[in-house]
Write a structure and sequence with these properties.
Aldehyde Oxidoreductase, domain 3; 18 helices; 3 domains; homodimer; Pyrimidine Nucleoside Phosphorylase, Chain A, domain 2; Barwin-like endoglucanases; alpha/beta
Chain lengths: ~500, ~500
């Protein structure tokens, strides 16, 4: 029942960022809205160039959209691969059959492999609205997923995206179960492992709720949005890469689920496990080291919960042919001095270049993880990893490898330095007793991180340090004076982010 | 930390219908987006005229919004009560504390009265995104709510909206647990009860997924979007009204939850109970009759599930001081001939005017319900309700009352008749064996109902009728020829909506 070409609306690029959910804007008096009986928030099938997407409709009662046109958000525009002036065909979106499985899960049923595969495929193909994703996440949070379900979910996430394969067996990766500002070990660990000849195709996320992700940090020094082909080429030439995962389609269902999880602030362990492992399996890794910082304001708050998670990660990895090793680390305070993309990049450079000013805690943690990974992949004997990792840094091999990778990704540039800086002084004399990672993270974000690369917080003191009233506790860096003010006001009303006590 | 007036963006009315979720459109290069570090889909606090709303942000990278402006959707515009040219203050939305209770429910905890009150208040004040509502609905679906939780939820829904009070004790209402096309007894029952002098402040919904709601049907004959004051006046003058519930704020949290439930297609019994009862309690009713049609394609599919629901409705009503009576009715096929706003209105008029052409099943069901309600409110003796209800119709008193109510609501007009009609003939000779309510409802919607008032389906045969091949089975009515075609194609591919068999 094709309509005559002339009544199909012409696509208009609105330049609206609606993240992963495509939007279409249609006049209330347009023939297609009337004949199809579309309502606002209807799901609409949009067809052009043999491509089809499902978009959420917003009905427009003004001249924002001119008669004969239909506006598309950026996600819709890009997925349709359309050019200005093309006509699009609109109809009611078909029913999404896999929603029945989400309902089944909501009512307590266990899902099988086929059902989870269908759900992940529909997520990636954009067949769900965010409310459906929220229902899936909540349903899974509620009744803990069985071991089989977690396994199937992991497989389904891998299958719903692209996968990479590499020659040889020594394909390694590392992952940190976030929550610790400044814990930027990845660029250093990748440089050490790649320098040692292991293949380490590292993809990282941008910050979602934190002041910086590894992709944001790397972006202050090189290009991180590589194509699939570019990423392969960099790794083939230099054994490793430090790319943004968002531009290569490894476990894309995971990225979409995470964005809704953040809005809900609901995490469920099953998805966390599937999220971590599916990315690594899709990237072609065989040996993975997972860093779980434990501390009162880290993601994992107790050793027991971290150990339970570690057990599940290992068991699920085993069944998928991925050798998982877990290291529990100190999550009681930020790592390094910098919090924010460029400030963390300067810390990384300092460690790799063996500068005296480099943060020793970041170096120690990086060589610990790199050493563990060398041992885990059986390229050094047990007990020799740490020393070897240290040697690779101190010899300059890691720095050479890091700059090679940056050059291959598009050229190395020094991280930017912000225009504005303000020191925050200690409010009393004493020992630094406790640091709240979450509040410090918010402080860095209020200063402008991660969007403003040079913004953030520079720590001048660590837990256990003795500090005298009036001396510098931390510095706020920003790219605009207004943001300094915002951040300072937040610090002044949240001084408990750094507790100073007279006795340690 | 107020910004200077001049950098605040000027509000622009975009005329976009985003239903209950307010949207704000902001240029990526606007000073406030940059200084606040806003991202697409951030929650933003919008302040003007001492009013505050929380809106979802969409970042615009084009000239759709001119520099210095911020676009607002209709919901945002109306809630702020703003005029063109005013400047608005934008900041990050504060954390919504009651989200923690939704998370608690998702992890299986029981909620107390205070927590449910907070959640309902935040829903009504627009503090949640749809994903949060989806999480609440899913969390409640999963672990059946306790009797206390349902009670607290009902109370919280009432408390989060307006309430009506009426003199006297004989305040009655009726409700039908949907799912049956054409089951338009409300206008008739209200007319009978109001004619008998009982107070019946009936508010109804528009269709959400069905081809017509009572508000849509009444709208073909009179004005239904009354203000709170107008509604009170009509009831004070004529004992009853037939208004749209959406324009008076009785249990508004329920309306918002329902719209997300429909998108999820997840219903949970606790919310259904709270939804029905909260509306009636807020409207000031003391005696309520609830019609539960039971049938394979009705909402309730088995007598057992209907009885269980009836028991819960009565128990919860009791504790809230509302006397609930439940009648289980035949839900195996549509009621009356018409399916669609105007076609159902004609059926209602036929019954009230005692026309020979009136559908007898609609009359019988209406007098049954009216009779039960007369007995339930103790205005007639047990066993005398049905006869009395019949008398009120046949004497013309009900029709008089109906027209009085319509006149008071804004004037009575005859329902419209569509331009186009197409008969669908029986595909074989035999008895009508089964009718699928859901498929018939979709057929009427494809013809244009409920948006096109005159569109829909007119049934020429009922279950049990003998019909010869080629004689008329039903007629499709529409306001445009294109829609007839859509509907016909759907009928031709779904003939199982009416099963004809040679033997009964």
């Amino acid at each position: 029942m094709d309509k005559t070409e002339s009544i199909l609306p012409v696509a208009l690029r609105l330049g609206i960022n609606s993240r992963h959910e495509p939007l279409i804007f249609l006049r209330s008096d347009s023939p297609v809205a009337r004949s199809e009986g579309f309502e606002s928030m209807s799901r609409v099938k949009v067809e052009v160039n043999n491509k089809t997407i499902i978009a959420t409709l917003l009905i427009v009662y003004s001249d924002l959209i001119k008669p004969g046109f239909a506006g598309l958000s950026e996600t819709a525009w890009k997925r349709l691969n359309i050019t200005e002036g093309q006509r699009i065909k609109l109809s009611h979106a078909p029913q999404v059959d896999s929603l029945a499985y989400i309902r089944a899960k909501a009512f307590g049923h266990e899902l099988n492999k086929h059902q989870l595969q269908e759900i992940m495929r529909d997520i990636v193909e954009g067949h769900y609205m965010d409310v459906h994703l929220a229902a899936f996440i909540t349903a899974c949070a509620n009744n803990n997923m069985s071991h089989e379900e977690i396994l199937y979910l992991t497989e389904a996430m891998v299958d719903a995206g692209e996968t990479l394969t590499w020659p040889g067996d020594k394909i390694v990766d590392k992952h940190c179960v976030g929550g610790l500002p400044g814990n930027r070990t990845s660029p250093i660990v990748v440089s050490i492992l790649a320098a040692k000849g292991l293949t380490i195709p590292k993809t990282s996320s941008r910050a979602i709720t934190s002041p910086a992700g590894t992709a944001d940090v790397m972006e202050t020094m090189t290009k991180v949005d590589l194509t699939f082909e570019q990423l392969k080429q960099v790794v083939e030439q230099h054994n490793g890469c430090l790319a943004w995962g968002g531009s290569v389609s490894l476990s894309p269902a995971d990225d979409i689920l995470i964005s809704v999880e953040k809005a809900l602030d609901i995490d469920f362990e099953g998805q966390l496990i599937a999220s971590i492992l599916s990315k690594k399996i899709a990237a072609g890794s065989k040996y993975v080291l997972i860093d779980i910082p434990v501390g009162p304001t880290a993601k994992l708050r107790s050793k027991e919960s971290a150990q339970a998670l570690a057990k599940q990660l290992k068991a699920t990895g085993d069944e998928m042919g991925l050798k998982v090793k877990v290291v529990l680390t100190d999550g009681s305070q930020p790592v390094g001095y910098g919090i924010g993309p460029a400030l963390e990049a300067w810390d990384v450079i300092g460690v790799l270049k063996n500068l005296n000013s480099a943060p020793q805690d970041l170096k120690e943690r990086s060589v610990l993880l790199a050493g563990e990974l060398l041992e885990h992949a059986e390229v050094v004997k047990p007990g020799e990893g740490l020393k070897e990792a240290q040697r690779v840094i101190e010899s300059g091999e890691a720095w050479d490898k890091f700059t090679q990778i940056c050059e291959a990704q598009g050229g190395f540039t020094e991280p930017p330095v912000g225009c504005c800086k303000m020191n925050v002084n200690a409010y009393k004399t004493g020992y630094i007793r406790r640091i709240n990672n979450r509040l410090l993270g918010r402080l860095a974000k209020l200063a402008g991180a991660p969007a403003d690369h040079a913004s953030g917080v520079y720590m001048e003191a660590k837990v256990g340090d003795f500090i005298t009233e009036g001396s510098t506790l931390l510095a706020i860096h920003s790219e605009a004076p207004g943001e300094l003010e915002y951040a300072l006001e937040f610090y002044n009303t949240h001084k408990e982010m750094i507790i100073i006590e007279e006795e340690l």
